[in-house]
Amino acid sequence: MMREGSICVLPRLSGLGGPTSFQGRFMAGLQQRGLRAHHDPTDPTTRAVLVIAGTRHLEWLWQFRRRGVRIVQRLDGLNWVHRQRATGLRHYLRSEWGNWLLATIRRSFADRVVYQSAFVRNWWQTRYGAVRSPAFVIHNGVDLNIFSPQGPELPPTDRVRILLVEGRFGGGNDLGLWTAARLTKLLRPQLTQPLELMVAGEVPPALKSPVEQAAGQPIAWAGVLPRADIPALDRSAHIYFSAEINAPCPNSVIEALACGLPVLGFAIGALPELVQGDAGRLVPYGGNAWKLDMPAVEDLSQAAQQVLANLPHFRAAARERAETAFGLDRMIDQYLDALLG
Question: Is the dihedral of CA 43, 44, 45, 48 positive or negative?
Fold first, then answer.
């Protein structure tokens, strides 16, 4: 039975990436609670609106304010790589426009602001200052029944598989891919079994051959996979490598933890909030991540060996961390508090 009123979710998202994944999970979770969710800004039953990042239709937000409908903005990180690397004029202008639009909604329209991590909250407040709207820090969540260690898939016994999952590696976001290649080359001689680097996501074709040369071996390019295939993919690996630099709150890391896949990465961005205890290992970056310095991978290699030496323990700790902090029900309850509380 549906409760009275509804929640509008803007904008309607599609394609790759964490925001689209979040939107689908969030709206399905609302429906399970008897709340109707939609994308129609003219729906008169709307009790609150959740803006995922931003919308160019500021007139819609103005109408919501006039009607007394609470506006909650969910914020990811800022666009920043374009200021450190040449990504093309079009990408630069689009990135700056995006930052301006998000900041305008945060400052002038949002009644409440949800930051995906404390790292994201501090980033926004440092760059654009604090706002008077109440702030919430809500980490992403996943369905722990779908993203679970339970399944027929097992890591291969004849090799060690390191998994890297991202939506896209273009647009100046390829540094993590090069780091994974360097890690592969450094770690391989330290192991008694062959090492396989598997990469899932959209990779520009021109990058593949140079990255394989840097790794000193072929790479298993899995390509872009349906979201339904990700749990099985996570269960099939020994270690997940988090490649994104200064990640705001990567869904891929939380999904890996939920599947009992230990996470390896650098202690930057939101990762220290997500990967705690023996859910994985984080190491110092070894340079200025904001300047996109090439990171040091020696500590990363040693951390990977530590995880592999006691893999059952780390797998159990990864799942425990997800059950404690990243359940979907917990996340939706927190969002409902921001929207309707």
Answer: positive
